[in-house]
Amino acid sequence: MKLLLAPMEGLLDATLRDVLTRAGGISRCVSEFIRVTDTVLPERVFFRVMPELAEGGCTPAGVPVRGQLLGSDPVCLADNAARLASLSPHGVDLNFGCPAKVVNRHGGGAALLDEPELMHRILREVRRTVPAGTVVSAKMRLGTQDDARAVECAQALAEGGAMELVVHGRTKLQGYRPPAYWDRIGAIREAVAVPVVANGEIWTVDDARRCQAESGCTDLMLGRGMVCDPGLALAVRAAVAGEGARASVGLDWAALQPLLAVFWDRVRLHIVPRHQAGRLKQWLNLLRRCHPEAEAAYQAWRGETDGRRIALALLGPEGAGPGGEGRAAGARYTAGSLPSGGAFVPTHSPRHVPVFQGPGDLGVRTQERCADRPGAATQDA
């Protein structure tokens, strides 16, 4: 069974990927999407969204990361996929599932589910352009307004060259409203010859088991459920392995403390001060679903703008730094510090990546146009 960590724009960045993969149980991550328009992006953009590229394409816990591209032009996506592939990620993923209006109005993400022929051209062009050994996968939803073309879209991607499909069990219109229609993922799984990974509304071990039963998929992608309960992947693995009933929460609040300390170290090192409190409160807000202690902390500090004051309240002087670079957290976060089944986590220094300046800080694109490259492929007539 593979358990993948979902890409979540504005939330599941390299900082949180680092922390959640330290908790154990995750097989592979997918980066936040890298938006592609009409230029070949410079390498620094890929490194900024996916700094794991500087370390063999893996998180500090050794979990591989696949880079995701979002766009609608087959040639430009192919050119950028080739550049990404040259940086040695663990594959290239293409986004056909983002429901955000700002993305969809430019013809990207889930908006493409109305155009299976274009989806096929995108996959075919990317597959033809990247090296033969590069894995190409895709993430999709069931459709835009309804799921009438779900199987057609999945077949277009598989026939175009996708080697794996992740299917979110809702349409663009349904967004993130419960429920997720796992049985419809099963119809897609039966219609294509490539592996299908089920995604959507998996918050608990019971959800994971029902999703597997209804979709027929062995492999799952975890998103908000893993952010709210960082022990979810380990708990799912334990349940599938028949190790008996697990607690309702995969990791209790005490076991989360080292993870919170690592998270704060990463935030403090790689995010400018004015955004640090926001990042702490963002994760606390989601942890409230499973942890009453997070609810109390969030309510107490929701108006605070000084990240260090929040960290001091949560972690004490040792966990809050300064002079961290993960030392205090790393010293405590070793084999045996998690419940049974926890993963050993190396305690080497965190990545040396550019400091994030805030939303939209993606660097300046080059002026190299996709169609200007020598031998550029053309779209089908």
What does this protein structure show overall?
By secondary structure, the chain is of the alpha/beta class. The protein has two domains: 3-240, Aldolase class I (TIM Barrel), CATH 3.20.20; 253-332, no CATH class. Helices cover 41% and strands 10% of the residues. The protein is built from 15 helices and eight strands. The protein has helices at 14-22, 43-49, 74-86, 101-104, 116-129, 150-160, 182-191, 205-215, 224-228, 232-240, 253-270, 273-287, 292-301, 307-320, 327-332; strands at 3-5, 28-35, 65-70, 92-96, 136-140, 165-168, 196-199, 220-222. It has an eight-stranded parallel barrel with strand order 1-2-3-4-5-6-7-8, surrounded by seven helices. Helix 8 (205-215) links the parallel strand 7 (196-199) and strand 8. The protein is globular, with a radius of gyration of 20 Å. Residues 323-367 and 373-381 have low confidence and may be disordered.
